[in-house]
Design brief:
With about 450 residues, the chain is α/β, with parallel strands linked by helices. It folds into three domains: about 1-125, no CATH class; about 135-300; about 310-435, no CATH class. It has helices at about 1-15, 20-35, 45-55, 65-85, 85-100, 105-125, 125-160, 185-195, 195-215, 220-235, 245-250, 255-270, 275-295, 310-320, 335-340, 340-345, 365-380, 390-395, and strands spanning about 165-170, 175-180, 325-330, 350-355, 385, 400-415, 425-435. Strands 4-3-5-7-6 form a five-stranded mixed sheet. Strands 1-2 form a two-stranded antiparallel ribbon. A hairpin with a 4-residue loop joins strand 1 (about 165-170) and strand 2.
Length: about 450
């Protein structure tokens, strides 16, 4: 959605009378807002376009084919975030608001720059502005390229060995404290792209900047804006659990595609040079990069986590009566009651509930209400099973008998935080079921 939207935006901008391209671009980025809550930042591109058109007096009703669906779908995504995923929404944007309070100069400077651009576009003829830009564009781009190279060198060679960029995060999901080493983010990006791939991405982004100042195509400018913004944001601070799958999802939408695109563009440009060293060097870099990716993927390409677990769970469900209710006594914030209970309920129609803290049943009449629910299920013909430690049943004087011991086994990739995952771990989950007697 993100990169297809960039492409469609470029196609529409070359001829804004092509309404279908504008509609497609607006829909693509609008739908993207519904899939990734952190993508609201890309609104910087449409806002700059809107300021440009308005200050030049070039806004037309046909432009609504792009801006209107994008705006309406963004409102839809905000409504969904507020009424259906409010905790996640507030957690994500609460962090953003906190950063804005700490670094208030950033939004103030951005607003000032936007107003300044609007005034310049409004007051000065386009030819005069173009002349000034032509005079200063090369020095400005060279400075930007130097900043990118310096930041990359700092993030790779200096930041990982300092004390800044390390924090402790209370992970309620796994009931543990997690050390987040944001200082190593760029090096860890090399886990997925290879170190050579990271540096090709850095050099390629500089090459894209240089190409953009010569051609100034909108899609290339939007690509640079999106890629550089999200790279700076998430390589500075991951904003997530650094474990493999959670850390990787921050990079997948924008950071990794941008690095691959920039690196591939640079490698495609080198062999087209007349110099023999450029052609040979470009081909050698391609082979080294692909070889590094293949070497890093060895043993993982064919790995399927939890292979065979579905069949084992099917067999376990078949051992239970069709009319059954399972009560998981599972104190983990997210544990077996959640991982196994959901497929048992939604795939096999065995109702499953998780009791995360049975001690809380002592409050008020909760224990009596639970026992009443159990009796009600049994009266309707359901077999009720207690999964886990039956101490609470004994304390309450509830009669029960051992019903089954179910063991599930599967191999999964290790969930490491401080090194690239390599090992396949043999996992085992044991479920002890007790049938509650009527």
């Amino acid at each position: 959605l993100l990169w297809a939207g960039v492409w469609a935006l470029g196609m529409w901008w070359t001829d804004r009378s092509r309404r279908a391209w504008g509609l497609l671009a607006g829909l693509l980025w609008g739908e993207m807002m519904l899939t990734r809550i952190d993508m609201f930042f890309v609104w910087g591109v449409p806002l700059l376009l809107l300021v440009w058109l308005w200050t030049r007096g070039e806004t037309r009703r046909r432009d609504g084919w792009y801006f209107l669906p994008l705006f309406l779908l963004t409102l839809h995504s905000f409504a969904h975030a507020w009424w259906q995923s409010r905790p996640y929404f507030l957690n994500t944007f609460g962090l953003g608001l906190n950063l804005l309070r700490r670094f208030a100069i950033v939004p103030v400077a951005a607003l000032f720059l936007l107003v300044l651009l609007a005034v310049l576009f409004r007051r000065y003829p386009r030819r005069a502005l173009a002349a000034h830009w032509m005079r200063w564009q090369r020095p400005a781009v060279i400075v930007a390229m130097a900043v990118i190279l310096l930041l990359a060198a700092y993030a790779w060679f200096v930041r990982p060995y300092g004390q800044a960029g390390v924090r402790v995060w209370n992970n309620w999901f796994a009931a543990e404290q997690v050390t987040v080493a944001d200082r190593e983010n760029l090096q860890r990006l090399g886990w997925y792209l290879s170190p050579l791939g990271v540096w090709l991405g850095v050099m390629g982004s500089c090459w894209l900047l240089w190409r953009w100042q010569r051609g100034r195509r909108l899609e290339m400018g939007a690509t640079l804006f999106v890629g550089l913004f999200f790279s700076l944001l998430y390589l500075w601070r991951l904003q997530n659990n650094p474990i493999l799958i959670y850390g990787l999802r921050r990079y997948v939408p924008a950071v990794m595609p941008f690095a691959i695109l920039a690196g591939a563009g640079l490698l495609a440009w080198l062999p087209a040079r007349r110099q023999k060293w450029a052609r040979v060097g470009g081909i050698a870099l391609v082979l080294l990069w692909l070889g590094g990716l293949a070497w890093g993927a060895r043993g993982l390409v064919r790995q399927v986590d939890a292979r065979g677990l579905v069949a084992q769970l099917d067999a376990a469900a078949n051992e239970l009566p069709a009319a059954s209710v399972l009560l998981f006594n599972d104190p983990a914030p997210v544990g077996l009651g959640d991982f196994m209970g959901m497929p048992l309920q939604f795939l096999h129609q065995r109702y499953a509930f998780t009791l995360h803290d049975v001690a809380q049943l002592a409050r008020g009449d909760l224990a009596a209400r639970l026992q009443g629910a159990i009796r009600g299920w049994q009266a309707e013909g359901y077999a009720v099973y207690w999964v886990g430690d039956p101490a609470w049943l004994t304390e309450q004087g509830v009669s029960f008998s051992p019903a089954a011991d179910i063991t599930l086994r599967a191999g999964t990739l290790e969930g490491s935080r401080d090194h690239r995952p390599r090992q396949i771990l043999a996992r085992e989950w044991a479920l002890t079921l007790y049938e509650i007697e009527p």
